[in-house]
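Usage

Read records sequentially. Each one opens with the input sequence:
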Amino acid sequence: MASQRAGIVGPLLFGLIFMLVGVLGAYATIGDTLTRRAEARRYVAGECTVTGTEIERYQDSEGDTMYRPRVRYVHVVDGQEFHGDRIGFSSFGTSIRSYSEGVLLHYPVGARVTCFFDPAAPEQLVLDKSMSWSILFALIPLAFASVGLGIIIQTLKARGTPKGALPSRKAWRARLEQDGELVLEPRESASFMALFIGGFALAFGGAGVGIAQAAWVSRSVGVWLMALVFLGVGFVMSWWFLWSLLQWMGPRVKLTLDRPTVPLGESVSLRWRVQSWTPLNSVQLELVGQEESTYTRGTDTITDAEVFHRAELAAVPGDGRVMEGRARVELPRDTMHSFHGAHNRVVWLIKLEVDVDWWPDIEQEYEIGVEPWRRKARR
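and closes with the structure output:
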């Protein structure tokens, strides 16, 4: 038990660090800006005169050269001058000098421009109090938080049982009903996948919009190309998120076994029911036994699967929006029972495919527990 706990500490700690970095990064970036946005509601418009402009050049923490536009201006209230140098409530630099040059084109020296100030504190001045798209860059850390949360959930879900043991019901995601029947649940949660993908879509899409704004100001081809890359990835992730969300909202599936586990050489009754918003074209069920091996190649974790048994359980044509039926699941005696090791697993799956009209099709896997063959006592 101690070795099992030690084996999950590393992944849990890694996931927790990722999640904390993402959450704290988003909070640090968004929190202060949103606070100032709330204060900006009481700012009123006035007229300022631009007295000077410059492009600030500095080095970031990694030693890269960055550029930030600076505008100096003066505002007169009741004969008293108040000086400011803030363009907006949030200020950021980029490695692209043309962006800063494009911003300063809007503020020529000597021009009279609209500015905004706090009537209770006229020295608080900004040239633009609108929502800056730069805040959308803060959505990028949410991707880190999503990755961290995914690592934590997968680690807790996969801890299952000690090495070499027959897995418990927790390992294959099922719940035992009061009457002794077992309701199976998919190996992968559609709702979690939708949230996970949605976090990445929001991060890349937000960054893409922010970069596009910078490209519009700077008129730089390089910035436009960068914006198109981020927007393209954001669009693909958004489409994937929408597809996953529709799958989660789609047909409701319930698979029920008449007992929690079944030994090799015996059979178990499977009751299935599919209910959809739109007409169902077909439902297919099959039993698959496969061996899964997980290993690392460089920094990648790879899982290979080899099928050693496959049998069709049901193939039913569409019949309205609700379909249900029964199937007999036969477990061959001369095969391998369920096994969950540290890197190798033997799993038995009920694979479900549902063809749906005007909706994403459903493809799900449900793991069942198969025990070793039981030798019957002689009478």
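Summary fields computed downstream for this record:
- The first strand starts at residue 44 and ends at 59.
- Helices lie at 2-40, 97-104, 140-158, 190-218, 221-249.
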